[in-house]
């Protein structure tokens, strides 16, 4: 699979503080890549280095198959759309007028404006002044500006920040469809992990400038085994089997429900066999999968890398 973004040993230091520490980022073509980390983790700094807005202290950046340097930066960025921090726009001008300015700056035909307004569902509001737009509408206008010229890469920094639940859902649906509707690979940063989990297929988790995990969301979920809820008819024999196996069990909220720690599949199968042999009467075994947010918190708190 081709990578639209590749960084190698990417670093950014401000005096003695290292904001980004030897980052090797790989964003596959056609993916929605969620770049996740707490505030100050290095997300925005990384995105600004990708776009050439700040200079790296060390390392390299490759976008769209080319190593970025002073000579080709503008050419690469013409094929890249971005929304970093707050969306830009002149409040006293309409959405149409704002997009005309951006189209001229990007050397994109103005006829492309109709297409991007349709994508972000702002066509009927094109002649309304941006100062009268809600925050969600301004965010969508910012994405429309980024989409002018049909870029192959979209870099979106916290696009749902400050939106209400309805605005978040609308933005989520819009971004999830970008690879299909626009042919664009999306790199999106956020700390709203529950929202990202619904739209991304690849994940990078960063903390203190270091990448803790990178790969398909499914791979991360394979590391996300949560507690196991065991339902039995006879708790006494069940507790004796668990004690002999040195498996700790907590009350699951019901005398017949026991909460067990995460166990490999083979261990669960063997445990169920022993419970059946001892007359525990196994009614159900439910594995609880940790959410992306829970995985993230466990990674950042322990600062251990998932392999």
Give the termini distance in whole angstroms.
20 Å
How many β-strand runs? Answer: 15
The biggest sheet amounts to: 6 strands, mixed
Rounded to an integer, what's the Rg over CA atoms?
Answer: 24 Å
Instruction: State the helicity in percent bands.
Output: 25-40%
Strand coverage percent: 25-35%
> CATH superfamily of the largest domain, called what?
P-loop containing nucleotide triphosphate hydrolases
- Looking at the structure, the CATH topology of the largest domain is Rossmann fold
What's the tally of helices?
Answer: 12
Low-confidence stretches at least 5 residues in length (pLDDT < 50)? none
Q: Indicate the structural class.
A: alpha/beta
Nearest-integer average pLDDT: 88
The outline comes out as: elongated
CATH hierarchy, class of the largest domain: Alpha Beta
Order of helices and strands: EEEEHEEHEHHHEHHEHEEHEHEEHEH
CATH architecture of the largest domain: 3-Layer(aba) Sandwich
Number of domains: 2
Biggest β-sheet: strands ordered side by side in the sheet: 7-8-9-4-10-11
């Amino acid at each position: 699979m081709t990578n639209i973004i590749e960084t190698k040993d990417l670093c950014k230091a401000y005096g003695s503080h290292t904001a980004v520490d030897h980052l090797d980022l790989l964003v596959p073509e056609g993916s929605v890549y969620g770049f996740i980390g707490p505030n100050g983790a290095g997300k925005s700094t990384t995105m600004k280095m990708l776009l050439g807005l700040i200079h790296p202290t060390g390392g390299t950046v490759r976008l769209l198959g080319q190593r970025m340097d002073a000579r080709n930066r503008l050419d690469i960025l013409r094929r890249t759309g971005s929304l970093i921090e707050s969306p830009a726009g002149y409040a006293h001008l309409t959405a149409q007028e704002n997009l005309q300015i951006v189209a001229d700056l990007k050397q994109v035909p103005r006829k492309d404006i109709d297409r991007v307004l349709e994508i972000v569902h702002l066509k009927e509001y094109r002649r309304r002044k941006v100062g009268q737009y809600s925050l969600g509408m301004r965010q969508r206008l910012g994405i429309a500006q980024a989409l002018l010229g049909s870029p192959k890469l979209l870099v979106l920094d916290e696009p749902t920040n400050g939106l209400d639940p309805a605005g978040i859902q609308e933005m989520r649906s819009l971004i999830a469809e970008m690879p299909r509707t626009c042919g664009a690979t999306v790199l999106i940063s956020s700390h709203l992990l529950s929202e990202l989990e619904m739209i991304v297929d690849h994940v990078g988790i960063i903390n203190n400038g270091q990448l803790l995990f990178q790969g398909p969301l499914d791979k991360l979920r394979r590391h996300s085994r949560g507690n196991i809820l065991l339902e039995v008819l006879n708790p006494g024999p069940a507790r004796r089997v668990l004690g002999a196996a040195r498996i700790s069990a907590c009350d699951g909220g019901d005398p017949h429900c026991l909460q067990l720690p995460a166990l490999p599949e083979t261990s669960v199968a063997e445990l169920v066999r022993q419970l059946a042999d001892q007359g525990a009467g196994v009614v159900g075994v439910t594995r609880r999968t940790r959410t992306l947010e829970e995985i993230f918190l466990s990674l950042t708190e322990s600062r251990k890398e998932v392999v």
